[in-house]
Inverse folding.
C-alpha cells in the first residue's frame, strides 16, 4: 500500500477483533511513529504502550476519572464510549510531551510557543502511527476523551509531562465508510 492509498483507506475503528497484535507489527508501527518530523528535531514525544493484563487497570482508572469528572458536574462528552473502545482494543498508546506543562498551568510566551511546536510534532508522530497501522492491517482510533481522566491516567502511567492523546490499536472488526470531507474550495485559499 502506498502512502496516498493508506491515507484514503484509513478509518477510525471502534470495534476490534479479539486478537493480539504481533510484536513485530507493533514494533514497526511504533518505529514509524518515532520517524515523524519535529521542530528542531527535538522529537518531543514519549509513547506509553498499554497491553495485556495492564489494560484492566487502565480501564478502571479511566472509568474512575470519568466518574470523578461527572461528580463535579462536568460534561464528559463521549468518554464512556471511549472507555468501551479502549476496553476492546488489545493495545492503547498514550502520547506525552515530557517537557510540556499541563494545559491549565501558567505558560510563559516562550513555553507556549514551544508547546505549540511540540504538539504539532506529536500530531505528526500520531499520524505516522495511524498510517503505519493502516498499512499493516491494524485498525486505530485517535482519542482525546482520555482528558476526562487526565490526572488519574497521568498518575497511573507515572507521567508528569503533558498528555496529548491516546490511540487504540487492534485488528478491525468493522469496515466503516469514509466520512464526508469538506471540499478543497472551502478549506484552501490560494494567493
Amino acid at each position: 500500500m502506498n502512502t496516498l492509498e493508506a491515507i484514503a483507506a484509513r478509518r477510525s475503528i471502534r470495534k476490534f477483533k479479539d486478537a493480539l497484535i504481533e510484536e513485530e507489527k507493533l514494533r514497526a508501527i511504533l518505529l514509524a511513529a518515532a520517524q515523524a518530523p519535529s521542530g528542531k528535531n527535538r522529537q518531543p514525544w514519549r509513547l506509553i504502550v498499554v497491553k495485556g493484563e495492564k489494560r484492566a487497570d487502565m480501564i478502571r482508572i479511566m472509568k474512575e476519572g470519568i466518574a470523578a469528572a461527572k461528580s463535579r458536574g462536568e460534561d464528559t462528552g463521549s468518554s464512556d464510549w471511549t472507555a468501551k473502545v479502549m476496553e476492546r482494543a488489545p493495545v492503547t498508546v498514550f502520547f506525552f510531551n515530557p517537557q510540556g506543562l499541563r494545559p491549565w498551568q501558567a505558560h510563559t510566551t516562550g513555553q507556549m510557543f514551544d508547546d505549540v511546536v511540540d504538539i504539532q510534532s506529536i500530531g505528526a508522530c500520531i499520524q505516522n502511527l495511524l498510517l503505519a497501522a493502516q498499512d499493516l492491517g491494524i485498525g486505530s482510533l485517535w482519542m482525546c476523551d482520555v482528558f476526562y481522566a487526565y490526572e488519574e491516567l497521568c498518575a497511573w502511567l507515572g507521567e508528569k509531562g503533558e498528555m496529548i492523546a491516546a490511540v487504540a490499536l487492534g485488528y478491525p472488526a468493522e469496515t466503516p465508510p469514509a466520512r464526508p470531507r469538506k471540499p478543497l474550495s472551502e478549506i484552501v485559499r490560494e494567493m
Notes: The longest helix spans residues 109-135.
